[in-house]
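Tutorial handout. Part one gives the primary structure; part two gives the three-dimensional structure as tokens.
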Amino acid sequence: MEDFATLPDLASRALGGGVVWADDEFFAAADHLVLPAPPVFAPRTFDHKGQVYDGWETRRRREPGHDTAIVRLGAPGVIRGVDVDTAFFTGNYPPHAAIDGLAADGYPAPADLLAAEWTPLVPKSPLAGDSRNLFAVTSEKRFTHVRLTIFPDGGVARLRVHGVAVPDPRLLPEVFDVAALAYGARITECSNMFYGHPENVLMPGLAQHMGDGWETSRRRDDANDWLTVRLAAPAEIALVDLDTTHFKGNAPGWAAVRGTEDGAEWFDILPRTALRPDTPHRFPVRPGRVAAAARLDIYPDGGLARLRLHGRPVDGFLTDQFRRFS
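Part two.
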């Protein structure tokens, strides 16, 4: 698997992504493309239009042409690669696809998007059926929308747009969650992710169940589990939010948060503190220092629904980053 596939899916519905236009969705709605869950398939499940597919499927073309869907990214940013997943589409997948990107201000209507000048990201390329088709992207520009074109027709289960979020600083408050995936924060290391991926703790909204958080296997030694986060911007953290919602018999007993500005020296943001099961915990803190990265230690193991680190970013960082990729 390509390295970019470990990066967040900027198009995911979980981040607010959505399909804003499609020229045809006769057999299956294009909205399926951005669903965060893996596609599923139930053989011999028919509705009035035929076999039900968990994906976008267009009717058969009887003349030359192509079909198109436009996706608004939930987290605009720099795209490192795309995954055109044709899972369960075997005799009805498109043989080729192309991807283009667009950087748009505000909230353009479909007519504006159709008339816009798009940037090619992936040229017309062959696809395999019932497969993940991975394509690296080399552009260093920030995009807000992507356009998937399939040739000539067929079905695609999911479109994953992997990259790094680059928020527009004009749309952010002065103090916000600098550990939010939607604003560009990233998990950089993790001790264990047996039951749940650590990226889940940086997702927006409340966790819906235990599987929507980070959970480690049970430790049988004297160590503890941990993860590290590269923050969306260097900031002095003012509030730590550790949410153990849904984790009742498997919440950590304690947790601690440390920060670093240079990657060498670590300092306390939240000293080791007892946690309660199935509880949102909020701790005002005053570390007195700026952190560019943070480390969460849980003792000894267990599960966490969400991690929020609210702070004021250093002056100019987000503006400089936004200009760099625009």
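Part three, for discussion. Residues 317-325 form the longest helix (9 residues). The mean pLDDT is 96.
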